[in-house]
């Protein structure tokens, strides 16, 4: 399944956000892959952040990562850098952007 997400980075934290993503912990990327993600791409336009991920089951992905210490640490780091657009942990699998059109 494909899931599109939208977040917003704080304007004064863009460089930190991009630097963090150059150093995503190998343990976290391994856990994301083990949870069924085959691809995850993030784009930025100004402060707007758009994610597109391909995974077997988004709800399963969230459940498997929820209490994983490396993910808890990562999410705390991201919370310092992002303005809240969606609370993905609370919204769960329903947090993805709805499809408007597809070719």
Question: Care to describe what's here?
Answer:
By secondary structure, this protein is α+β, with helices and mostly antiparallel strands. Helix content is 41%, strand content 26%. The protein has helices at residues 14-21, 26-34, 58-65, 69-81, 88-91; strands at 2-9, 37-45, 48-55, 82-83. Strands 2-3-1-4 form a four-stranded antiparallel β-sheet.
Tell me the layout of helices and strands:
Elements: E1 2-9, H1 14-21, H2 26-34, E2 37-45, E3 48-55, H3 58-65, H4 69-81, E4 82-83, H5 88-91
Antiparallel strand pairs: 1-3, 1-4, 2-3
Give a quick set of tags describing it:
single chain, 103 residues, alpha+beta, four-stranded antiparallel beta sheet, 5 helices, 4 strands, 26% strand
Strand share of the residues?
Answer: 25-35%
For the biggest β-sheet, the strand order reads: 2-3-1-4
Share of helix among residues?
Answer: 40-55%
Low-confidence blocks of residues: none
Count of individual beta strands: 4
Name the helix and strand elements from N-terminus to C-terminus, one letter apiece.
EHHEEHHEH
The gyration radius over C-alpha positions equals 13 Å
Count of DSSP-assigned helices: 5
Look at the helices and sheets and give the structural class.
alpha+beta
Outline type: globular
Mean pLDDT, to the nearest integer, reads: 91
> What is the straight-line distance between the termini?
16 Å
